[in-house]
Amino acid sequence: MDLGIKNKVVLVQGASSGLGYAAAKELAGEGCQVAICSRDEQRIQRAAESIRRSTGASVQGYVCDLVDPVARQSMLGEIERKWGSVDILVANNGGPSAGFYDSLSEAQWDKALQGNLIAMKDSAQEVLGSMRANGWGRIVFITSVSVKQPIDSLILSNTARAGLTGYAKTLSSQVAEHGITVNMVLPGIHDTERVKELHSDLADPAFMAKDIPMKRLGQPDELAAVITFLASTRASYLTGQSIVVDGGLVRGLF
Ligand SMILES: NC(=O)c1ccc[n+]([C@@H]2O[C@H](COP(=O)([O-])OP(=O)(O)OC[C@H]3O[C@@H](n4cnc5c(N)ncnc54)[C@H](OP(=O)(O)O)[C@@H]3O)[C@@H](O)[C@H]2O)c1
Q: Which of 32, 81, 150, 180 lies most in the core, judged by the most C-beta atoms within 10 Å?
């Protein structure tokens, strides 16, 4: 299938490792021009070099703390000067702390809502103007399976991502007539640094996988493939959807 996104300008956030990195690599493999960002200069430049080497695509790494609006604007300006405006945004950020309703500080709540709701909402707002002007755009938010089935120990994630989903679903209907689609992918348990940190007490992947019908963790590129399809011209009539990629973990009907 020709996904029809060769030379599109892509920004994948939080892409020095994990799901963001895998999405950037997959999109680069489709011939997109890919900007990636994270907070750490060495990690992001290493990731950019690795994607360039394996795909031959044009890939640029940017240092940007996504909760800093000035840093985001400056990165967007640099991308625009290099390649033109962003056609495809994969909005992603590091995940919030684990914890229960009575164990989290105000500062932790604030950080989670800033990072996993406000910064992601603002990142979309910042690319919508040019997408509207071009009459085409794709926004894919990486959220979590916790949107469908809240995870007990992750009340911050459950709350911030539910809010973001409300925003994204509403946005999708407001921009659909301009050729812009807005979708969400909901990872289950994929083999990344974040998952290793959260489950540091459960080092055995077989144990982590015991409730997953496929009896294994997802690989980051299994989420990246879905993101890439959603970002493509072939997903032209698909918007406002929350797509779970979890090896069957969520047992609900919808
Ligand atoms: N993996 C899963 O199974 C899973 C399941 C459900 C939800 N999720 C969610 O999906 C998202 C990605 O997960 P992941 O597993 O890929 O996490 P990860 O392996 O920890 O990667 C997070 C990435 O985001 C970057 N980052 C973190 N904070 C940032 C900030 N403020 N500004 C810019 N970049 C930042 C990190 O790079 P630097 O450290 O270099 O900044 C890294 O590249 C997270 O929100 C996570 O909670 C993951």
A: 32
